[in-house]
Structure formats: structure tokens, C-alpha cells
Write a structure and sequence with these properties.
It contains eleven helices and eleven strands. The chain is an alpha/beta fold. It has a domain of 199 residues: NAD(P)-binding Rossmann-like Domain (Rossmann fold), CATH 3.40.50. A seven-stranded parallel sheet has the order 3-2-1-4-5-6-10, with helices on both faces. Helix 1 links the parallel strand 1 and strand 2. The longest helix has 19 residues. It is globular, with a radius of gyration of 19 Å. The model has no long low-confidence stretch (mean pLDDT 94).
Length: 316
Amino acid sequence: MLIVILGAKGSIGGAVARRARFSGHRVRAVVRPSAGTDRFPAGTEILHADLVSREAVVEAARGADVVVHAANVPYPEWPRLVPALAENALAAAEAAGAILAFPGNVYVYGHPRSRPVLEDHPQEPNTQKGRLRLRVEQMFLQAHRDGRVRLVLPRYPDFYGPGIMHEIFQPIFEGAVRGQPCRWPLDADASHEFILIDDAAEAMLKLVATPAAHGRAVHVPGPRPITPREFIRLAYASAGRGEPRIRVFGRGTFRFVGLFNRLARSAYEMAYLFDDPVLLDGSLYRSLTGGPYPATPYEDGVRRTMDWFRSHRTTS
């Protein structure tokens, strides 16, 4: 099977490339012209293409059995680029007669009405980014219903793991390595959920191979709900540190930083997820696939992430 990954330098794209090659699939990693070609598994075909160009994306996906739309852009660029990238991915999958796999998130739900959240939870996004994601998902689901593509739509909590230099997680691991305080938004004691990026990739490939899962959203939770405080303690323990000092900052600080930082300003609308989090129910995944969703314990996942982070810092 040939799996073409659009945006393969990103976190989920890179993880799918690793997992797919490990499973014996052919992989074509499609990256932006300015992106490097390092850190892909041996045997990966690497192709540079302008992901904003529909013709280039369609050509990049030629011959694909699966097209993974993993391309992402910084929050400030979402209104301009998210719809265009999604339309190009759909056109590429349709032209190739391929399955379209799209990593979903919890933005489409808005504030949760229940915990955990099932797939039939009302989709009431209260943010611009949530409405954009919902628009993309609706377009993909309609294309599936129309017979244009077969859609795989796993829905995940926040990613963490080797290779992820996220503005939320990076300060945690940096603080742990240096023995310094770290920061967390709004509430360090509200139940949250994280998924190891390699688990997310494994689950996507399993859903690709499960026809009953096509054409619908399927939740892939983390191993269990956890407070950020507990997660941070695991990171500091894996670095041989004692009790971490966590500097929790509120909405006022978020807004103030946004006056000077375009990314923080764009991220502010998602702040509700830090004190009113969405926790996912994974029973549908188990029912459709006949087995449990991948769920590396936080203790192991954090340790692996710390090992990668130390190595990355040493070689950078």
C-alpha cells in the first residue's frame, strides 16, 4: 500500500510515516519546498511540493492508496490556508481514488456537555478555529457520502511525544531538563487528556484498515484522564528532578501577551480547553476494530519524550 502524507514534517505526519514504514507500507512524504528531508525512515520517498497549489498536490498523490492530510499552519494563518489545504487534499485523494485520512481534534465540540464525550455529542464550536475545523470535516464527510472518497477521521486529544516542540509542552520538558519552573495555562488541576503521537499514528492506520470505521468520526483517547500537574510531575521525575514549580497563568496574562505576540493572540480563543476540557470516550473504536485503542501509559510516553528531548538538545 502506498501512503502519501501531505505535511509529513509535522508531528502527526512524521509519526504516520514512521509507523507506516515500520509496518511495511510504501510511504511518500510530501513536504513544503523549504522543508528539510532529515529524520524520515529509510526507504521513504520524499517529495517537495507547494501544498497551496492544487495541481502540485494532486500530482504528489498520484498512485496513492491512502492520502493523509497532515498539513498544518500556525494559528494566525488558519482562516486563509486551512480551507485551501483541505480542498487540495480532497482533490488529490479523489483524483487518486485513495482513502483520505484526516486527524481530527476536539475543537468541533466547543464546551463539553458531558465527560467523557461520545461521537454523537453536539458540534457547537464557540471559536473561529473550531468552526473552520467543523467546516473541513463536513466537507470531507459529504465527499464520503457522495462516493468521491472514503474518509478516515480519527479524533484525538492533544498530542505529545518525541519530535513535538509545542509551545505548551516544550517549556515543561525544558524546565525539567534545567531544573527550573515551567508554566501552564489557567488550571493545572483540571482533568486533561494527552495521546502519545505514535499511538495516534498507529490508531489512524488501524482505522484505515477497518472499513466499518470509514465515513465517520472515531474517538481515540489518551490512556486515561490526567491533571497537567501530574503529567508535569512525571516529566520532572523522568529528568531526575524533584517536585516541579508550576507557574499557572490566567486569561489576563494570556490577553496581555497577545498584545505583543500574534500567535498568543490567535490562540487565546482556545483557552477554554484548559479549564473546561473535552475528554473522549473510546468505546466506538473498540467496537469497530475489535480491540483496544493504542494507549501507551503516561509514565512510558513521558520517559520516551524526555529521552528524545535530551538527545535533541544535545545535537541542536
